[in-house]
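Q: what sequence does this backbone want?
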């Protein structure tokens, strides 16, 4: 049955490519590591190593050459049974095609923000988007609290509500320069 499906899948992909239709996008592999290295902060050898990691992660649940949320969470936390606001947010930021899966380029481009040589502006932009849960262009106290609580829970740390509130108060005291209860990207 699986062989029949694979054969049908290959036939449909070939037919659509033949007709120049892009309705079926087969997973792309490591097509041009030099180009990807030029467009990110990674070297060609780092891109090649990332591709090996990508192949391993993308075959953890479904061997389709793409990383779904379950595989992504499994790679981050060694389990796919937990709700994870942090993993969901990071996955959604990596998923630039908004199709619920990550191809290799999305994976590599997403990880590049964590590279030590990534520009600070990219790191700030990523962090801001991570905390801007409502995607409204600013971060409110409740969003910071949600992310702090979720991150603590995911790492197994328990802090008293008062300490969490102190973290949020201090964060806003240091960053909310307009003192309007919101943090925008410039702040």
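A:
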């Amino acid at each position: 049955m699986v062989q029949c499906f694979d054969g049908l899948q290959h036939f449909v992909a070939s037919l659509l490519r033949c007709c120049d239709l892009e309705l079926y996008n087969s997973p792309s592999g490591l097509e041009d590591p030099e180009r990807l290295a030029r467009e990110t902060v990674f070297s060609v050898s780092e891109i090649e190593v990332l591709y090996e990691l990508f192949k391993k992660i993308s075959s953890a649940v479904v061997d389709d050459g793409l990383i779904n949320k379950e595989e992504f969470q499994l790679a981050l936390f060694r389990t796919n049974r937990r709700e994870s606001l942090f993993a969901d947010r990071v996955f959604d930021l990596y998923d630039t095609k908004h199709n619920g899966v990550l191809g290799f380029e999305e994976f590599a481009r997403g990880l590049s923000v964590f590279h030590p040589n990534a520009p600070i502006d990219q790191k700030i932009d990523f962090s801001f988007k991570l905390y801007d849960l409502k995607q409204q262009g600013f971060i409110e106290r409740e969003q910071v609290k949600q992310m702090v609580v979720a991150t603590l829970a995911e790492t197994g740390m328990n802090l008293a509500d008062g300490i969490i509130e102190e973290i949020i108060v201090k964060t806003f005291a240091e960053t909310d320069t307009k003192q309007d209860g919101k943090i925008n990207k410039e702040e």
